[in-house]
Amino acid sequence: MPEPNDNNLNPSSLKFAITAFMGLLILALGLYGVKPNYLKYEELTRNNSEVEDFVANLDKFNSDIESRYRRLSDLENELLHLQGGVSSKQIESHIVQVLQNISWSQNVALLTVIPNATRKIFDFDALRFEVTLSGSYFNLYA
Fold this sequence. Notes:
alpha+beta, two-stranded antiparallel sheet, elongated
């Protein structure tokens, strides 16, 4: 009969202990070794699909950009054409008319409007005017 302090394990207990240890070892390897790499793989796969979608639509983006550049060029040509058809005297006349309308609406007398030399600001020609007004304080600063 075996004694109570006997260090012998029965075979089924030994199998159970080894199986439990192996299970915990596999679980630890899975949590600390495989899972982070799997998550990185998932993220890279997702990023790769986004890049593939972008590359697939790149031709569409390029054609869209080219069409917008063509439209911009057409608008620039139209603007140049419109500017070329208007003389500086017509522009000055229009500005004087607008100033006169503003002065009438504010009950202010527009005494003189003297055009000065044009000045280049960036790509634009700036028309400068010397304007003399007459009216009450409250009408001038309304």
